[in-house]
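User: Predict the complex with heme C.
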Amino acid sequence: MAQVFDRSSNALARMSLVLTGLIVIALGVALNQLQRSPWVTKQGQRPDQPIPFSHKHHVEGVGIQCQYCHVQVEKAAYAGIPPTKTCINCHAQIWTNADYLEPVRQSWATGASIQWIRVHDLPDFVYFNHDIHVNKGIGCASCHGRVDEMPLMYQENTLQMEWCLNCHRNPAANLRPTSEIYNMAWTGPSSDKPVWCGSTGKGGATANAVNCTEVDPNKAEVKPASFETGASSPASYQKFTSQIELGKYLTAQYHIRTPNELSSCETCHR
Ligand code: HEC
Ligand code: HEC
Ligand code: HEC
Ligand code: HEC
Ligand code: HEC
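Assistant: Here is the predicted structure with heme C placed in the model:
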């Protein structure tokens, strides 16, 4: 064989081995990138919906609350998409001739649901529920972004495992008073904008357990609503000027599990 393959072809063989190696690595990197790419995660895409429904117009413009349409979000795993009846409540009177709304009228006339295309869709092997997140002080905007500013719905975050874990390892960074769940613009307390919270002594791990206000309860001329009803007024309030302090306090009040427990595989894969 020595006559056929001389020294230079030996070098060539080695070269091609190195090259193959490089190609394999490059492919691996590309696949990994692909797996995280918006093309796979669907992050940021706006699918063609049967009706170009605008959250911006309905939430920011008309001022409709999330829970008017997503009625299940505090009580069930699924937030739910509103039935045609919800649209008809208003659109029997408003914009009755708009072409855009033809599918709504059709659906109402025939009883066939509007075929909305899902924007967020976790794989079936992942367990997720809305009620626990919302009742433990995670706002819609922490996961879905500024929905009130979206002319068309899109997925703000990757919804990949790393993204979930990132919060489960340090939930305090995102915890807010449950009264602020639907507040799309909530930014957390600061020294210019403190938040006061107090335990209502009611026990339980959710909304009833703690009451927060952005009006100084010790000075305010106008007392927070809870003072008037007297239903669940805390005996004393604590002042918070940073998200870290507030997050630590709420972690204890809401009885949030440890990062270890929240990151264990069984939490999300049952
Ligand atoms: C007037 C009714 C209405 C209101 C109010 C409303 N939504 Fe929606 N929402 C819909 C409809 C209809 C869809 C399905 C069409 C779409 O995806 O745009 C939807 C879809 C969504 C989706 C995506 C669902 C999917 O397919 O993954 C999210 C997230 C969402 N809404 C969050 C919110 C939040 C947060 C608020 C409050 C800031 C809100 N919505 C207020 C009607 C409403
Ligand atoms: C509480 C009343 C109310 C409900 C409920 C409601 N709408 Fe509307 N909708 C409005 C008003 C008011 C406008 C006009 C907004 C504007 O011009 O800024 C509008 C406008 C629209 C438009 C025209 C384009 C736009 O976004 O401005 C579409 C399409 C539409 N709505 C679809 C829907 C669908 C689908 C539903 C049910 C999921 C729904 N609406 C539920 C009040 C409502
Ligand atoms: C902890 C993150 C998180 C929070 C907080 C959250 N969502 Fe979601 N939302 C998701 C995920 C993840 C999905 C996809 C669920 C699936 O595919 O099973 C989703 C799906 C939805 C859907 C589609 C229908 C459904 O239930 O699958 C709607 C509507 C929705 N969210 C509305 C809301 C509203 C309104 C709020 C605030 C009250 C909210 N979400 C808070 C993560 C969140
Ligand atoms: C912004 C923060 C945040 C994000 C993002 C988040 N979670 Fe959570 N999750 C929480 C908090 C806070 C709790 C409540 C912990 C407690 O009560 O101990 C929780 C609890 C849970 C639970 C426990 C439910 C139960 O009934 O025991 C599951 C399951 C879960 N999350 C799944 C997910 C999945 C899947 C994702 C990603 C698609 C996700 N979470 C994203 C903050 C988050
Ligand atoms: C906070 C929720 C959460 C926890 C805790 C969690 N996972 Fe996941 N896991 C997810 C989500 C969400 C996906 C889907 C990701 C996607 O669609 O890209 C996933 C996907 C996976 C996959 C499929 C491959 C992939 O990466 O897409 C495997 C395997 C997996 N998880 C294993 C584990 C193991 C092992 C643990 C414990 C060490 C664990 N997971 C803990 C949420 C979680």
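Residues 122-123, 126, 160-161, 164-165, 168, 263, 265, 267-269 surround heme C (ligand 5) (CB under 6 Å).
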